[in-house]
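Re: Re: C-alpha cell formats

Sure, here are both.
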Amino acid sequence: MGIIGGLGSWVFRLAINLIYEAFFFLPMQILNSLGLSTIIWVPFLLTPIIGGLIVGYLTSKVSKETKGHGVPEVLESVALNNGKMNLRIPFIKIIASATTIGSGGSAGREGPIAQIGAGFASLIGQKLNLSSKELRTLVVSGVAAGIAATFNAPIGGSLFALEVLMGEGGTTGLLIPIIVAAVVGVVVGQLLLGTDPAFIGFPALEYHEPYLIPLFVILGLVCGAGSAFWIKFFYKLEDIFDNIFEKFKIPGILQPAFGGVFVGLTLVITYFFVGEQWETVTIMGRSYLPMDAVFQGSLLQGSVLLVLLTLILLFVLKALNTVFTIGTGGSGGVFAPTLFLGVMLGAIFGIIVDDIIIITNVPIPLLALLGMAAFFAGTGRAPLTAVIMTAEMTKDYFLTIPLMIVVSISWIVSILLEKDNIYTLKLIRRGVVLKEPTADILETITVIEAMTPRDKLVVVDTKTRLETVMELVRTTRHEGFPVVEQDMFIGVITLSDVQKAMHSSPKDWNVFDVLITKKRPLICIHKEATLMHAVHIMESKDISRLPVVEKFPSQKNEFPKLIGWITHHDITRVYISEKALSTLQASEEHIFSYQNGPSENKSS
C-alpha cells in the first residue's frame, strides 16, 4: 500500500497538471499565437464550467461516492463497512478530482488522494479476501501512504490516518503497518516527485522572544473561533445550494457547473487586476503559490492597508470559491483550502499586531505558518497531525513549541463552538452515525466471517424421506437442517416439523411434503450483514439457526443460493475469540513462562 499510495499521489498530480495544461495553458497559447491576446481571459471563465459539467456527469451518473471531500466517505467505509468500498471508486475519483482541480476549482488534492489510496487498498483487500480487521488496517494504511507522499511527511501522514480516520478508536497495534506504508509512500513519492517540501521558501523563523507567547495564545483563540465559523459557513452555504437546486430542479450533472460560473468569474477578475502574476494570488486548488508568497514575504510588501485588504480578499474569495466548488457537487478536498485560510488568517493577525497595534518585529510569516496549523487543527480536529506535519514540512522541529501552544488552544476553542469536525459533520447531515470506538464487537463482524460454510453443513433435499431426517438427528444431534436443490435454499426442516408430520399423517411423506404444509416465509440473512443483525433476527423470530445466502433474489419465484449457516454457537464462539484478541495485549503483562519445559528426568 505504501508503493501504491506513492504511485497514486504521482499519477493524481500528473493528471491534474495534464488537465490544467489542456484546459488553460494550451488555449492561452493558441489565443496568443492567433493574435487574440485581448480575449485570453476566456479560458479562465469557461474552463471551470466545462470541468463542472464533466465532474457532474461522473458524480451523478457513474459514481456518486466520488462527489465531495473524499475523507468522509473513507470514514464511513472504515467505521461502518469494515473498509469495504465500491471497487470503481479509486479510478473514477482520480478522473473526477483531477478534473475539478485541474479546471481551476478551489479544492485540495489531499482529500481525494486519501480516498484514492483507501479505494485501492479496499480493492486489493477484497480480492485477497482479507478479514474485516485486516481490511480496515489496509485501508487506513493506504490513506496514510497517500497523504504522506503528497506532503513529503511520513509521520504527519501516519498521524492523519490515526487521528482523522480512527479517532479515539486508534490503537498502537495499527501504528506499525501505518508507519511502514507512510514511509514507503514517501520514498516512492520522492523518487517520482522529488524531495521538495509541499511549500517552498520557508524563511528562518525565530520565536524565542518571550513577548511572542501571548501572541501565540491570542492567535490560537482567533484560529479556533475562525475554524468553527468556517465549518458552520461551509455547510450553511451548501444547504443554500441544495435548496436552490431542489427548488429549480437542477439536475446533478449541471450542479458543479453552477459553482464553476462563480469560480470562473473570480479567475477572470483576478487576471484583469493582476495580469501575468495572477497565479501568485490565485484561488485555484492546484497552486500553493499564494501561501508560498506569504511565507517568503513577497505578498507582504507594499502599503499596509493594501496588503491587509489583499489578504482579507484572498481569505474571503478562497472560502467562497471552495464552497462553490465542493458544495455544488465538485470532487475535491477541504484540507488544502483550510490550510490556505489559516495562512491568510495568521498573516492578517500578524499585520494587525505589527502595524496597527504597533508591536515591533512581529514575524508575520511565522504567525502565518502557525495560523495554518491551528486552523486545520480546529477544522479537522487533528492536533497531533497539525503539529508534526507542519514541523516536517518546514524541516524545523523546534517549531513544535509555538505549534503546540496555538494548535492546542485552537482545537479546544473550536470544539467548544462546534462539536463536530468538517469531515464527520458531512456524514451526520446525511444521517450516517459513526459508531463509537467502544461499539459492540457483534457490530464489527459480518455473518460470513462467523458462519459455518456450505461445504461443512449437513443438508437435505426435497426428496429426502422423513425417516432419513430422523436418522440424521440421531447421528448429528442437530435439530434442524437446510433444504437445498442445486445449492438453492428452499427452506428449513426441524425435528419438530418431522414429529408433527409423522404424528398427524400416516402418509409416507418426504421433506417436500412437510415444507408444503408449513407454508412459512423463508427466513435468511445476507452474508454481509453483521452478527448484531443476525442476533436481532434470531431473537425476534425465536429461532436458533439462520441460513446465510449469497444475495437476495430479485424476483419472488427465485430462490437464493445458500452459502452457510449461522447459529447461536457460531456467534458465541466468534464473540469470545474476538474479545480475547482485543484484550490480549493488556493481558500479556500478566503472563510468565519458563524458557524450558520440565525435564523428562524427574530427578533433574
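Second one below.
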Amino acid sequence: MRSKLYFIFSFIVFTLLFFILSRANIYNEIYPFAFSMLFALAWANQRVWLLSPAYLIGYIINFPTFQGIICAFTTIFLLVLPYYMHVATKTTMKKYELFIYAFLSQISYMVFSVIGGVNYLFIISSLVLGLMFLYSSLTIFEPLIIRGFSYKLTLCELVCGGLILMSLGAGLYNCDIYGFSILKLFVSFLLLIIAYSSNSTYSVIFALLMALGSSLPTNNPIYFAPFAIWSLCVIIFKNNRYFLVLSLIASEFLIGYYFNFYYTFAVIDFVPILISALLFLIIPNKYFKEISLLLASKNQRLAIKNVVNRNREILYRRLNNLSEVFCDMNEVFKKLIKKELSEDEVKEMLYEEIKDCICRNCSENKHCHRTFGEDTKKIFKELISIAFERGKVTILDFPSYLSSRCGKINHLINEINTLTSQYKSYSKLVGNVDTSKLLISDQLNGISGILKTLAKEVDTMVSFDSTRENKIIDELSTNNIICTDAVVYEKGSRTTLATLIVREEDTNKTKLAQVVSKVCGGKMVVYDVYPAEKAGLVNVNLKSSPMFDCVFGLACQPKSGGTISGDSHSIERLDGDKFMFAICDGMGSGNKASEKSQTAVGLVENFYKAGFDNEIILSSVNKLLNLESDDMFSTIDICNVDLKNGIADFVKMGASSSYIRGKDYCKIIESGSLPVGVLQDVKAVTKKVVLNEKDMIIICSDGINDTFGSDSDMKDFLLTIKTQNPQEFADEILNRALANNNGYAVDDMTCLVVKIF
C-alpha cells in the first residue's frame, strides 16, 4: 500500500514539475528546460515508466496541438527506446550517449520550428541551453543521490542547483490562474520554511534566485525588490513563527499598497501570501526539526567531541590500572625464579648424598669419616669437581691410600658419575625453566611499559579545531572536492592530525593535501585511506609531514655454491614516523642458518611493531634463542631512524660495524657484544647518532665487512663512491666485496643502504 501511494505521489510531483518546466522559457521563445530535466531524472535512477506519462501529460497540457503531441512522443521515444535497449543488452549507458539521445529527442521540435518560421538562433539556443541545463541537472543530482541532502555542496554544484531554481521561477511565473500568482505562493511558503529552519543566507539566496528566474520570460525584474524585502523581513523575525508570518504579510502589504512595486495590486494578489502563511502555521514543530537537520550547513558536534574526550579519560585510567596489574605479575614471576646453588653448595650436597648412599653401611665408615673426616671430604669434593669438568671419574683419579683401603671403590665411582650427570641435567632443566620465567617476566614488564605509554598518549584532552574543519570543507569545495566531514586535532606539540570523508574519486587529487596543508599551517601528508560507511565515500587520514624521509637499496648474495642465504633482513615502518632497518646473520649458511636468522629477525620485527623498547626486545630474543639446543647463533644489526628529528638508534648484538656516509665524511658505528643465543644475559651495543640531510646509512653482514682488511679500509672505500642512489650504492659495495675475493662469496652477503633526505 505504501509503495502504491509513493508511486502515485511521485507521479503527481513529476507531472507538476514537467508542467512548470514546459512553461519555463527565456524571452518567450527558448524552451530548454523540460526535456533536459526528463533525461536528467532518468539518469538519476528515477523510474522511466513513471517519468514518461508524467512528461506527456505535463507537456501536452501546455501544448495541446498536433505539433506539441508529436514533439512530446518523440522525446519520450528517444528516452524509452535507448533505455530498454541498454537494459536488454545489460550494458551501462555512457554519459555522452545520454547527451546524444537528448539532442536527437528534439528532432521534431527542430522540424516544426523551422516550418513555423522560428528564428534559427532561437532553435539553436534552445538545444544548446537545454544540453547545458542537462549537464547542470546531472551535476546536482549525482552528488545528492550519493551523499544525501545533509552535506555541503561544491561551488559548481551550488551554481547548478541555483539554475534549477531559476528554471522553476521562470515556469511558475507563467502559471498564474486568473490573477492568482502560483510563483508568489511557492516562494513565500518556502521562504518561511527556509528562514525558520535554516540560516539567513539561504533565505536571501533562494529569494533572489526565484526573482531572477521569474525575469527570464519577459526580461522584467518586477519581483526582485519584493522578494528581497520578503527575505530581509523574515530574517529579522525568524525565531518566532507568528512574528515571522506577520512580518511577511506586513511587507507584502507595504510593497503592494505603499510602494506600488507591482504597478497594479488587487485583493487576489494578496491571497497567495495569506495561504502560504496559513499552511506554514499549521505544520507541526517536529517537522521543522527534521527540515532543520536537512538544511543544516554544519554541526559543531560538541557533544560527540566531549564524548571522545570523556572516553579517553576513562581509557587512560583503565590502561594505567592494567599496567599496574602486569607490573605486579612481573614481580611475582621474578620471585618464582629459583636461585642457582653456588659451586661449594653443590659439592657439599653431592658429598652428603654419596656418603649417605655408599658409606652409611660400610664397616670403615667411622674410620674414614671420623678419624680422617676432613681428608675424606676433601678427596670426595675433588672427585666431584673432576666429574663435573671431564664428565666422569675413573679409578686413576682416586688416591692410592683410598683405593687400597676402600672396598666399595667401583660403587663409589659409579655413584659419583651418576650423581654429577643427573645434577647437570637437572641444572640445565632448572636453568631453562628459570630462563622461561625470566622471559615471561620481561614480557610482562614490557607490556606494562606499553600500557603506560598508551595511557600517557590518551591522558591529554584532544583539542578539536572547528574553525579549521569548516575552512577545510569550504576550501575543498571550491576545488571541486567533496568533503562531507572533517576532524582536525593536535597530537603533541608538533603533530597535527586530520581525518576527512571524501568521494573515492577525490582521494588522489593533489589539491586534497595542498588545501589541508594550507589551512593547518604546515605540510600535511596522507598516511591512510580506508572505506567509509557510505558507498562511494572514503576516510582519508592526514598528519604533519616529518622533517625527513628516507629511501633505501638492498644488495644480497648467498655463499658461493649455495642458493639460500643465511642472512635475513627487515624494513618496517613503525608508529610515530619511525623506520626500522635490520640485518640478522645466522651462523654458517644454507637452510639452518636461514631459519635461525629469519626466526631472530621475525621476533625483532614483531616486538618493535608491538611497541617494546630495545632492552626488552633484545633480552627476550636472546633468551628465546638460548632455549634452543642447536648451538647455532645469530648476529643482529638494527638501525631505528626517527624521521621527525633525524636521529638514528643503532643496536648491535655480535654484528659487524655499520657506517654513516656524509658529503665529505664517514663515521664508523662499531660493535662488541656476543651474538644472540650464546649466553642468557648479553648486553647489546647501542649508539645514538644525529643524522644530516643526504646521509647514507650502511648496514652490512660480516660476509661483506670481512672482505675488507679493516673498518678503516671499508670507510676509505665508501668515501670513493659518488652515486647518491642508495640502490646503486649498495650494488657497488657488494660488487667490491666480491672483487676482494676474486668474485667468490666465502659467506652470505647482505648490504642495506638507507638515504636520509
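The two ends are 68 Å apart (CA to CA). The chain has five domains: 1-173, 176-297, 322-461, 466-544, 550-756.
- S.
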